[in-house]
Every structure is written in structure tokens, then in C-alpha cells.
Amino acid sequence: MAKAAAGGGGADSSVADQLRELGVKGVLVQMAERGQLLALKCEMPQCYHHKGRAAFDQVTTPRTPWAPSPDHYPILKSAGGQLRPENVRLSHIWCNNRDYGWRMQIRTLLAKGKSLAEIAEALNSKGVPPAHGTNRWTAAMVRKAYVS
Ligand SMILES: [Zn+2]
């Protein structure tokens, strides 16, 4: 194909189109139109979708766990972060909820003075699922996830 898209210009509008086709409105579409989202993929540090980061469900009411969702990042909603282009990353609803869950647990345990190895053990014993493709948290994974 001689007309294959060269450069980045065309990719941005197609991400916006893909989002609209899924029924997404608001800040994520706006970001895609501005060239602030380069691909339709879950940007969470850990993604749990078995088909991968690029697989999303249509937005329905209520939303399914695999529908696209704007995650407050880097400033958490609980810390006053707002859904604006400078504070949003694209996530699956499921991954976003999971992220919040383990992030809060790690935060609490760090504040209590626990080591990363102790935190990994605590997450494992509570059955908190680690990244797709692994089945146990390790100290290094806890640190990497927390600072992502
Ligand atoms: Zn995901």
C-alpha cells in the first residue's frame, strides 16, 4: 500500500474515532483529538485483560469491567486530582479499580514500616492478583507497581 500512513498525524484521529465507536465521550476523546493519546490501550501499570491492553468493551449502562475509563493520574482523585488532559490516563475500569485497591494497601503498609518483601507476602496472602502472566507478588514488583 503506497498510501500507508507515514508519520503520526493520521494515527491521532483514528484513536479518537475508535473511542467514539466504543461510545466514549469527554476528556479521553478530547485528548485523542489533540494527539495526546497515541493508541487505544490500557495505560495502567498492570493490565488484567486476558486479550491484552488493546481490547475494550463497548460503553454500556452500567459499564462492563472492560470498558474504557479515564484514570486520575498522576494525581489521584482522592488527593484532589481532576479529569483534565494533564491528569488522565486511559484504563480498563477493572484495571483502574484493581490499581486503586493494591495501591492503597501498599501505601498503608509502607506507612506502617513494612518492608517490600512483607508487603508482597501480605498481598499474596490476601489474594490480590498481581500482573497478568505472574501469580505472585515479589518485593521488586511491589516497588515497581507503586512507583509507576
Ligand atoms: Zn487494563
What this model shows, in words?
- This protein is mainly alpha-helical and about 150 residues long.
- It has one domain (about 10-145).
- It has 5 helices and 2 strands.
- The chain has helices at about 10-20, 25-35, 95-110, 115-125, 140-145, and strands spanning about 70, 90.
- A two-stranded antiparallel ribbon has the order 1-2.
- The longest helix has 19 residues, at about 95-110.
- The chain is globular.
- The termini are far apart.
- About 25% of the residues are buried.
- Zinc ion (ZN) binds near residues 44, 48, 49, 91 and 92.
Relevant terms:
148 residues; two-stranded antiparallel sheet; 7% strand; binds zinc ion; 5 helices; 39% helix; mainly alpha; 2 strands
Give a nutshell description of this structure.
By secondary structure, the protein is mainly α. It has helices at residues 9-21, 27-33, 93-111, 116-125, 139-146; strands at 68-72, 88-92. It has a two-stranded antiparallel sheet with strand order 1-2.
Structural topology:
Blueprint: H1 9-21, H2 27-33, E1 68-72, E2 88-92, H3 93-111, H4 116-125, H5 139-146
Antiparallel strand pairs: 1-2
Zinc ion is lined by residues 42, 44, 47-49, 53, 91-92, 95.
